[in-house]
Amino acid sequence: MDVFWTSVQSVLMIVIIIGIGYVANSAGWFNDKFSGALSKIIMRVALPMSIFNAMINNFKPASFSKLGAGVIYVFLAIMIGYVLAWLLVKVLKVPKGRRGLMITGINFANTVFIGMPLNVALFGSLSQPYVLVYYIVNTALLWTFGVWIIASDDPTGKADAKMDWSHLLPVPLWGFIIAIPFVFITPLLNFYNHLPFLSGATLGYKYDPIAHVATQVYTYGTSGVIPAVGALVTPLSLFYIGIMLSNYGLKQMRVDFHTIVVLAGRFIISPIVMVIIVLIGTKVAGVHLDHVFSSTLIIQSATPTFAVMPILATEYHGDVKFATNIVAVASVLFVVVIPVIMILESL
Fold it and tell me: Transmembrane ranges (predicted)?
């Protein structure tokens, strides 16, 4: 019950901050360029620093062995989801121009602007590297396999189904890459710790009552540049979601049968697939993920559809209104879906 109540309060915090962004944008406080600038600050500055800081704070060399299992789980979940979505599209005889959008809409998540702040709000910065695991696989498959699916469904037949390799090394991933040598090379980490204006690190002592030995340890606050800027990710991302929801125009949203199918696939089928994979991994393969990691994978599998779907629909002559509607409705519904998932997850 305590876990559930904590989750409810976290979700309420998320909803309130999103609401502030929504109301502020609806009141005309922000101009058209603000959301774009905010997106760049989050993606190119705050998020890489946040990921770097989370790696330094929470990860040791031995921790990396756990991440590999997560990569496999996410890959399997998306591939299984693709097969199920493809079957749905065939059975329902979805018209060309919507098929690729439905398949990708069911399987690919908005990991950064919704998944990351949600996870940090629920589990703290410890979960950021775990979110990054989902983000890496989700991004890699979206901009290769996912783009190919949408392009192949071009109703005009004019588009080349090109895989966009340029998105395989996005800016936030550099926070993870740059952190790796700091995690593995102790002198490098010590050098970083000796720059408190940058790291926010303070030296203290931890006493071992069994060995009767006190060892020096660094603790990280938010006074340094990197942790302070990294801490902006969650509130700014939630503001961004509110602004986007305001821009979509809630009154303009329409829910047709195909939209319902995508939402059911995204919010029901996708997390169920991930739960089954995690259970099989634990019970059959003997791969035990810690609670935060497994919860992160399940929650990320139920986050709303990736935000650039309308852009890809435009690029490959798909149903742009349908794509925009899916993103808007899914982004609104996640506020209802997440408490349900947390209730089930806490049972």
Answer: 6-25, 68-89, 101-126, 132-151, 171-192, 225-245, 257-280, 292-313, 325-344
Residue 101 lies in a domain: yes
Share of the chain above pLDDT 70, in %: 80
> How long is the chain?
347
Looking at the chain, the whole-number percentage of residues with pLDDT higher than 90 is 14
- C-alpha to C-alpha distance for 43 and 253, rounded to whole angstroms: 27
- Token output for 95: 């018209």
Residues 6 or more apart in contact with residue 141 via CB below 8 angstroms: 75, 78, 108
Q: What is the pLDDT of residues 75-117, one digit of tens each?
A: 999 999 999 999 999 999 988 888 999 999 999 988 766 777 7
Alpha-carbon dihedral 93, 97, 100, 102, rounded to 10 degrees: -70
CATH number of the structural domain spanning residue 137? 1.20.1530.20
Environment class of 66 (CB within 10 Å of its CB; exposed 0-12, middle 13-18, buried 19+) = middle
Structural domains in the chain (count): 1
In a domain, 220, yes or no: no
Supply angle C-alpha 11, 248, 46, rounded to 5.
55
Q: Is 99 exposed, middle or buried (0-12, 13-18, 19+ CB in 10 A)?
A: buried
Q: Are 127 and 67 in contact (CB under 8 A)?
A: no
Show the tokens assigned to 145. Answer: 């396999």
- Give residue 322's identity as a one-letter amino acid code: F
Percent composition of the chain: helix, strand, coil (DSSP 3-state, to 5): 75, 5, 20
As a whole number of angstroms, the distance between CA 330 and CA 334 comes to 6
**Burial letters 131-148, b for 16+ CB under 10 A, else e:** bbbbbbbbbbbbbbbbbb
> pTM for the complete prediction?
0.72
Q: Tell me whether residue 213 is in a domain.
A: no
Q: Is 289 within 8 Å of 89 (Cβ atoms)?
A: no
Q: Which residues contact 42 (CB under 8 A, 6 or more apart)?
A: 112, 113, 232, 233, 236, 237, 240
* Residue 160 forms part of a structural domain: yes
Which pLDDT score, from 0 to 100, does residue 40 have? 80
How far, in Å, CA of 144 to CA of 148, rounded?
6
